[in-house]
Write a structure and sequence with these properties.
The complex is a heterotrimer. Chain A is of the alpha/beta class. Chain A contains 36 helices and 26 strands. Chain A is globular, with a radius of gyration of 31 Å. Classes of the chains: A alpha/beta, B mainly alpha, C mainly alpha. Chains A and C meet through helix 10, helix 11, helix 23, helix 24 and strand 18 of A and helix 3, helix 6, helix 12, helix 13 and helix 14 of C.
């Protein structure tokens, strides 16, 4: 008996009704899939729809989320008038038959006319004003004829989007938005429930799940929301029932029947996508949170419907419409027709495009007129923008393919014989393209390679100051190994000192931080700390770079850093950490990793004497999205540890012995150095230089000198994109500028991140060396000559395809609709629950990228150029499901570049089609800075360096 | 003998009257007729005797009635014209008290103070631009009242002051209340007009006890700030059609200049410090307090209500996420110069109101009956 | 000579930003192109720097001769005995507040010039910021209530415009209207107090308030209550607190300046400024202490359950302003001033660093934090949950406020409907417009 009165008796989650489970899964595909923001992993915003062809998925996503499917038409038109899109690109992207319509126009002709000029007008008042003030002057004769002809004729109606929820109908009737109050309450509850440690006082009964926790809160008597009187009654009636039952009960109360419930539930969940998405994400990945939140999407839905049902009922009563959804959704939505004046613009414009005369227009019969308007209506704005999008991508594709083709002969003629003077291995990240180019421009004897920035070592890494290990590897991989940073033996005392002081400091900070929220603590701190924090704030705002330098010096003095090593050796064998991972690697495991990475790079013979392995990360202040600038291949962390570890492994004699056995001619004279490049302030950090053999001192001096110059050049090339840095900075000034950005509290754009990404080139560096590519390509080293069975390529594509597409598509969606798919401008962002950001005082959780990260981005699907034959690519796609999905559904554009002939073929509509490049000589500049220093815009490819004779 | 004040007011009337003439209107009435109204007002301003002044005012009102685009409005204005003529007649017959009553009634009718707002409300809903015309010529009417009627009926004016003041303040509260719930821009315009009508009634009432400056300041601010506000209503409506305030408007993205000029005029109308409205409010509240603290309080409530109503209306019309992309151009160069000139006058008089006050004091020295 | 220097410095302090606004505004109206960021930034930061220099010079000259001084210009309005003077009052209080306000405004402008780069609304932001700069200096230095009120209104308007800065979204606009309505409602108190002061004490000069002791106890208390009402609104004390957390919709530096730094403290400054009146109005003093402590308690409780960076700071700020209000009302004015200045600096820097919350939390990971404090442990389970629920819902203050003003809206709508019906009855226009 006792069990029956216990409200938890029914609580164990029952299996949801099959339909509900399927519906929730459908919703999960559309909800944002971003985890807590401390670690930001780029992923395709519509990852859940990747099984659909790209354009269909875009339409589906837009219809559910209300997002813009493509850039606005005006943006595309501006691109046309700036020459960013050319007419031939539009013609190439345009479908449509040659069926004649009227006035001598074919269907295709009508479409082309609609693309070339804004003929469809939805702002009739503005049109009238422009006509009256003379801002719009159509051809007078045609205009008169069109107006004349359309008198007494009405254009065919447009379709109107059907409603999905009560709110849609209520809003269409001009009522207030019933979601406002539901969201105000729900957002607060969600934030309290999912909070990862921002509140000093944790929500009671969180462990019982969202539904129960909310129920306890309301029952405790802290007040229910206005209009929520029925809520308590519902809670009493449904006491202890599982969330699934409550969902069904609420749906029944709202009159949602079997036919519409799927759509209704999905739309309901998508009304507050950020929080819903977080429930969905944490339900599947509770490990991403510090405290297991026991989040379940169905409970979120249940609470939402409990809050919503009475408010919606009230709103329906007020608007005098039925609450019953079956009846409400049938309410006539009305139809909209083109206004006569707007119709005249369309007719006049089409006639002008057709070159028709005024009399031809006047003599159009009703049938022809109808056909004309039908043809125009059949090419609605979204279809037009889709064509524009394809053309936008097509133009860039032509540009880059033509450049690669034009550059190839010269590149091949320059192939170096013998080993390079020194080698630099970078991450494939497009932000390193300029640095690589700068290094190569410094000394023709230097060579660079690109490989995913975790360098093949997937680890959980714990640095000296880290609280817990974190995964340094691409997001889908779960590392099996853990590596820690340790002080060298004589400096252990130093570490102890450091840790002691750090812990004192952190405790003090914690005390102060929570103290400002208490009454007495706040008063005390106002009196004592107020002036101090004021002074530090003034310093940081007026002299950010100086203050941050001072800060770094001070902390170096107070918190001395011991010399450290990474402990990569697994000893004793078989040791597991308390998280169940191997601590370090065995020799065989190391050999595997070193061999794999060197093979990927094509670095199997003639290794240079010095190889610098350069990971990357990014520093910025006051930036919740800081992690989004770090290395994607390291799962949103910094790649320094991986670079350092790789170098450490590859320098070990026993590893080298193993590597040599596997056929890679690694010389005893070769030395690996790990390093970290900060993409924000362009700092370089080198690891374990105290172990550099003395034989390499001079050569390494030269390397460092080169990198010092290169990072300045890199800073200069980056600075040209920042509007607030004057054009024409010297390299030194540019470096200071980017350092200032990274150390300023006020800087919302410490760097532009992946903003420039557009293309991925998998192939020999020789093909692109000396080619200015404007920080746009992911450059993946791959040498088909050492990969006869394409095993290496398969490995590369399986990793690079999804990672590159993830980054590229996140930028695509966030820049196409920054409000829905992105998180809008950073300026009002407010960190909530340590989970993410919301706008201002209370809003949905904002996912995706902020405007400041994507503002320069040109949304184009990744153009993946692979130095391999179509046959090889098709074989690989056949084996790698995710790659196939991306390519076949055209989420990425795949181009095959034949390694021997240089012939290009583009995968389009299910098959490879040959591409014949325009044969135009590339523009040429002596140095990169000559080509780009005077422009802020994206620049086309150019050959850099003296012309080759 | 022409005073500086008359010259100043004439300039103000000219500037304010050119507002609607230069703005591209939705339904532009004949410019000649509009010009006629302005000319009539200036004639009234300079008329040496009350009878001529009132006759000119009545003619002006008939011009306004001709262009107002509404039958109710025309009827109201015709009634006001009749009252004005009546006032002139009463003056001619030395019936000072009757002249006062008729003149006040005409003022109330043309400024739409509740409950006499039927005509102006109808005009605002049908041709908002016509009210800008009407506001522009108001300073002449107020001046004529102060100059010719008050000396003729000092006792009545003195005795009726507390009543007029409370009635005006109450009417202002009702206007303010109406502005808070206005569903569209035209009704917001109508409500602001009506609220200022109440304010003017109170000011003119208080003038019966010597607070002449308040009445002049309120009338000038009425013509310029409110007129500018109306001109912006016309400007935005001619570009985007009638504006409802319920859904997000988002017009500021397409029309930043109209938006911020509108905001400025609206703020000047609710006594933004640094504009003449602030000086007018200061003088008015001072005057009201002496007649009736209740009226002061009511007037403050009215002003608070109107302020909230205007901010709500402003954000409803201009802010919010854009409903669509509007293609008409922002303020044209001539519209900008004209609004800039009006803003300049408003700001100058707000920061240095003594230039206007001194010209008032020349005619009506303090302490004179 | 000394007086001239003082006058010049006061004029620069007050008018520096205003001249910059007029310059930018004339550019906006008369130039064919919208002004560039560079021009706007240069003009406004220039104006605010002049203002800071003036404030420091004023402060410096006051340090040289630390006696309360009045700087008087020819009156703004003068009509017989009715005079609205332009007079500035230089004493320890005004010098400190003026320098603090000028410094923080300039700081915020410098911060924003980077932070708002490329943001639509850049010009608007800086114009409003400079309007605030002038308004707050008027408030700080005013020697008469009219001048004070002019500044006060500018601050209110600037605050509303900043809250609604992100005009494309609905929430900021509603929050702006809410804040503005609160200000205007409470300002009825200020204006009434102002007019009444003039009538009862013969002048609106601050020095005239010294004579308040001669008034009847009722008059004194009513007058003081008027100013208290205005202060409660501006400083978001109970029962007018509901706008403050919602004011976090604007860009971070403006939130920092207004709701951490200066604006939220101007209500308290008004009470410090009119303290002569408060001293002789014991009832109002009692009410002030009571409301201040109540606000402090309420806000401190709510601050504990906030899960986001800015609301946390907002409620923590509210708690301290409540304490300061109680201090002022209880007569500890020097303590209150020191508390106010330190608090403004502390909160301003906290707001500016609010986006670092995630980074900071990761650095501090592992340090205990969510521990119950003694009184929480002392409560029973049910009582604790109840108190948590109440705090999470902010004691439903928002909804109480909404219910309290709902009748205004209701009667306005009803009245408009009736009015429209009546008008259509008598209308002659038959066809719809």
């Amino acid at each position: 008996m006792a069990a029956l009165t216990d409200p938890h008796f029914f609580a164990p989650a029952l299996e949801p009704a099959p339909w509900l489970r399927a519906t929730l899964d459908h919703a999960r595909h559309l909800l944002p899939d971003q985890g807590p923001m401390g670690i930001f992993v780029h992923h395709n915003t519509l990852h859940g729809l990747q099984h659909l062809p790209f354009h269909e998925a875009v339409a589906e996503g837009a219809s559910y989320t209300g997002a813009r499917p493509y850039l606005p038409e005006a943006r595309f038109r501006a691109a046309v008038s700036e020459g960013r899109i050319e007419r031939r690109d539009l013609e190439e992207a345009l479908s449509g038959s040659d069926r004649p319509v009227a006035l001598g126009l074919t269907e295709r002709g009508v479409r082309l006319a609609l693309l070339m000029a804004p003929l469809e007008i939805d702002d009739v008042d503005g049109l009238r004003h422009r006509l009256r003030t003379g801002a719009f002057r159509p051809d007078p004769a045609l205009w008169r004829a069109s107006e004349q002809r359309l008198r007494g004729w009405s254009a065919p109606p447009h379709a109107i989007r059907p409603p999905r929820r009560h709110r849609d109908v209520l809003m269409a009737l001009g009522g207030p938005d019933p979601d406002v109050r539901v969201h105000a309450e729900l957002q607060r509850l969600c934030a309290a429930f999912l909070d990862q440690g921002q509140a000093l006082w944790v929500m009671p009964d969180r462990a019982a799940g969202f539904l129960r926790a909310v129920e306890h809160l309301y029952r405790a008597g802290g007040g229910v929301p206005r209009g929520g009187a029925g809520l308590l009654a519902d809670l009493d009636r449904l006491a202890g029932r599982p969330a699934e039952v409550i969902v069904e009960d609420s749906l029944a109360a709202l009159g949602v029947d079997d036919a519409t419930r799927d759509e209704f539930v999905v739309a309901t969940l998508l009304a507050l996508p950020g929080w819903g998405g977080m429930f969905s994400r944490l339900e599947r990945r509770p490990d991403e949170a510090h405290h297991d939140p026991h989040a379940r999407l169905v409970e979120f839905l249940a609470v939402r419907l409990l809050l919503e049902r009475h408010l919606v009922a009230d709103a329906c009563r007020e608007a005098v419409v039925p609450l019953d959804w079956r009846a409400l959704r049938e309410m006539p939505a009305g139809e909209s027709r083109t206004d006569p004046l707007a119709a005249a613009v369309l007719l006049c414009g089409l006639a002008e495009a057709a070159g028709a005369s005024a009399t031809a227009v006047e003599e159009l019969d009703d049938g022809a007129l109808g056909r004309l308007f039908d043809a125009a209506l059949a090419f609605p704005p979204v279809a037009r923008r889709r064509v524009f999008q394809d053309a936008y991508e097509g133009r860039y594709r032509r540009q880059i393919l033509d450049a690669v083709a034009a550059h190839r002969p010269e590149a091949l003629s320059r192939l170096r014989k013998g080993p390079a003077k020194a080698g630099f291995v970078f991450c494939i990240d497009e932000r390193e393209e300029s640095l690589r180019r700068a290094v190569e421009e410094q000394d023709p004897g230097f060579e660079t390679w690109g490989v995913a920035g975790f360098f093949g070592v997937a680890i959980d890494y714990r640095g000296l100051d880290d609280h817990a290990p974190g995964a340094h590897c691409p997001a889908p991989v779960t590392p099996a190994h853990e590596v820690h940073e340790h002080p060298v033996f004589p400096q252990r005392a130093r570490l102890a000192r450091r840790e002691h002081r750090r812990s004192l400091w952190r405790r003090l900070m914690r005390r102060l931080e929570s103290g400002t929220r208490h009454l007495a603590g706040g008063a005390f701190q106002s009196l004592v700390l107020g002036p101090m924090s004021g002074a530090s704030m003034i310093g940081n705002v007026f002299a950010p770079r100086a203050v941050s330098t001072m800060h770094a010096r001070l902390s170096a003095a107070v918190l001395p850093m011991p010399t450290t090593r990474l402990r990569s050796v697994r000893e004793p064998l078989g040791a597991l950490t308390d998280r169940g991972k191997h601590l370090g690697f065995t020799t065989a495991e190391k050999v595997d990793r070193v061999v794999a990475t060197l093979t990927n790079l094509g670095l199997v013979r003639e290794l240079p004497p010095i190889l610098v392995i350069i990971g990357h990360g990014s520093t910025s202040l006051n930036n919740p999205h800081e992690s989004a600038h770090d290395c994607g291949a390291c799962g949103g962390r910094r790649g320094g540890a991986n670079a350092r570890l790789f170098a450490e492994m590859a320098n070990r004699p026993e590893v080298r012995a193993g590597v040599r056995e596997r056929g890679i001619a690694i010389d005893d004279h070769t030395w690996f150095v790990g390093a970290l490049h900060d993409t924000s302030n362009d700092d370089m950090t080198y690891y374990d230089l105290d172990r550099l053999p003395s034989t390499h001192t001079e050569a390494f001096d030269h390397v460092v000198h080169t990198l010092e110059n290169a990072r300045r050049e890199n800073a200069r090339e980056r600075a040209r994109r920042f509007d607030d840095a004057p054009l024409g900075l010297s390299p030194e000034q540019a470096l200071r500028h980017v350092q200032g950005r990274a150390s300023s509290l006020a800087q919302p754009r410490p760097e532009y991140g992946h903003c420039t990404n557009a293309v991925a080139i998998v192939g020999r560096r020789a093909l692109t060396r000396g080619l200015f590519l404007d920080r746009r390509p992911f450059l993946v080293s791959y040498d088909p000559a050492v990969d006869p069975h394409s095993a290496v390529l398969e490995r590369i594509l399986a990793a690079v395809g999804p990672v590159g597409a993830g980054i590229n598509l996140e930028y695509w969606f966030s820049s196409v609709d920054n409000e829905v798919y992105g998180c809008g401008t950073k300026l009002p962002h407010n960190v909530t629950g340590l989970l993410g950001v919301m706008n201002g005082h209370q809003s949905d959780l904002r996912t995706g990228l902020p405007w400041q990260m994507v503002e320069l981005h040109e949304p184009m699907r990744l153009l993946l150029i692979v130095e391999a034959t179509p046959e090889v690519l098709l074989q690989i796609a056949g084996r790698q499901a995710e790659v196939r999905e991306l390519v076949v559904n055209e989420w990425i554009q795949l181009v095959s570049l034949d390694p021997s002939s240089g012939r290009m073929q583009r995968f389009h509509a299910g098959a490879f089609v040959p591409y014949s490049p325009d044969e135009r000589p590339l523009p040429r500049a002596a140095r990169s800075s000559d080509w780009c220093a005077s422009s802020r815009e994206f620049l086309g490819p150019a050959a850099i360096g003296p012309a080759h004779v | 003998m022409i005073s500086t004040l008359q010259l100043v007011l004439a300039v103000i009337i000219a500037v304010a009257s050119s507002l609607p003439m230069l703005f591209v209107d939705h339904a532009p009435p004949a410019r000649g007729v509009r010009l006629g109204a302005a000319v009539a007002a200036i004639v009234a301003l300079f008329a040496p005797v009350g009878e001529i002044a009132f006759a000119a005012l009545a003619v002006g009102l008939l011009f306004h009635a001709r262009t107002c685009g509404s039958r109710s409005g025309a009827a109201g204005l015709a009634l006001a014209a009749a009252m004005t003529l009546g006032a002139g007649l009463a003056l001619a017959l030395d019936l000072g008290a009757w002249a006062w009553v008729a003149s006040i009634a005409a003022l109330a009718l043309r400024t739409g103070g509740w409950p006499l707002h039927v005509g102006t409300a109808a005009i605002a809903e049908r041709r908002p631009g016509a009210l800008v015309d009407l506001a522009a010529t108001l300073p002449a009417a107020v001046f004529v009242h102060l100059h010719h009627v008050l000396p003729a009926a000092p006792e009545l004016a003195h005795a009726a002051a507390p009543v007029a003041v409370v009635a005006g303040a109450a009417a202002a509260v009702i206007g303010g209340l109406a502005s808070v719930s206005a569903p569209d821009l035209r009704r917001l315009w109508s409500a602001s007009y009506s609220m200022h009508g109440g304010m003017l009634l109170a000011a003119v009432g208080a003038a019966g006890r010597g607070h002449v400056a308040a009445a002049i300041f309120v009338a000038v601010s009425f013509a310029l700030a409110l007129g500018g506000f109306g001109a912006m209503v016309v400007a935005i409506e001619s570009r985007t059609g009638p504006v409802t305030l319920r859904a997000g408007g988002g017009r500021s993205t397409s029309f930043p200049r109209i938006t911020w000029t509108f905001a400025f005029f609206a703020a000047a109308g609710i006594a933004l410090p640094g504009t003449i409205g602030f000086a007018a409010d200061d003088l008015l509240l001072h005057a009201l307090w002496e007649e009736s603290p209740l009226a002061s309080t009511l007037m403050l409530v009215a002003s608070a209500l109107l302020a909230v109503g205007l901010l709500r209306g402003f954000s409803g019309a201009f802010l919010g996420s854009p409903l669509k992309v509007w293609t008409a151009g922002d303020l044209s160069m001539s519209e900008r110069w004209l609004s800039g000139a009006v803003i300049a006058v408003l700001v100058t008089s707000g920061i240095y109101p003594m230039w206007l006050l001194e010209s008032v004091l020349q005619v009506y020295p303090v302490g004179a009956p | 000579m000394f007086e001239t220097a003082l006058s010049v410095s006061v004029v620069l302090t007050v008018l520096g930003p205003l001249v910059a606004v007029l310059f930018v505004a004339s550019n906006l109206v008369f130039m064919p192109q919208l002004p560039s960021e560079r021009l706007v930034r240069g003009a406004i930061i220039g104006g605010l720097s002049v203002s800071l220099a003036g404030a420091l010079a004023t402060g410096g000259s006051w340090l040289l001769a630390p006696l309360p001084a009045e700087v008087e210009f020819s009156p703004w309005l003068k009509m017989g005995s009715y005079v609205v003077p332009i007079v500035f009052h230089i004493d320890a209080l005004s010098v400190v507040f003026s320098a603090l306000a000028a410094l923080l405004t300039l700081l915020s402008a410098r911060f924003s010039s980077t932070y708002l780069h490329r943001e639509p609304g850049y010009t608007r932001y800086f114009v409003v910021l400079a309007l605030f700069g002038t308004g707050v200096q008027l408030v700080a230095l005013a020697g008469a209530l009219d001048l004070f009120f002019a500044g006060w209104e500018l601050i209110g308007l600037a605050s509303a415009l900043f809250i609604g800065f992100f005009k494309d979204r609905r929430e900021p606009l509603l929050s702006a209207i809410r804040a503005f309505a609160t200000y205007r409602a409470c300002d009825i108190g200020f204006f009434l107090g102002l007019v009444a002061t003039h009538e009862l004490l013969g002048s609106t000069r601050l020095s005239a308030l010294e004579g308040a002791g001669a008034l009847s106890p009722l008059a004194r208390n009513v007058l003081a209550a008027c100013f208290l009402l205005a202060a409660l609104g501006k400083s978001a004390q109970l029962p007018f607190s509901s706008w403050l957390p919602r004011a976090m919709e604007g860009p971070t530096p403006s939130s920092a300046l207004f709701y951490g730094g200066i604006s939220v403290h101007t209500g308290l400054y008004l009470l410090l400024r009119t303290h002569a009146l408060l001293d002789v109005a014991p009832v109002v003093q009692g009410v002030g202490v009571g409301l201040g402590l109540l606000t402090a308690l309420f806000a401190a409780l709510v601050a504990r359950v906030q899960t986001d960076a800015k609301s946390t700071i907002a409620f923590s700020t509210l708690a301290q302003t409540g304490l300061i209000l109680a201090e002022i009302a209880a007569g500890f004015t020097t303590l209150a001033l020191v508390h106010l200045v330190g608090h403004a600096l502390l909160r301003m820097s906290q707001y500016l660093r609010a986006p670092s919350t995630l980074t900071d939390a990761h650095l501090l990971l592992g340090e205990t934090r969510n521990h119950a404090i003694w009184w929480e442990r002392a409560l029973g389970d049910a009582a604790r949950t109840r108190l948590f629920a109440a705090s999470l819902h902010r004691f439903r203050l928002d909804e109480w406020t909404e219910a309290a003003v709902a009748w205004v809206w209701w009667s306005a709508t009803r009245f408009s409907d009736l009015d429209a019906r009546w008008r259509s009855r008598v209308a002659l226009d038959r066809e719809p417009s």
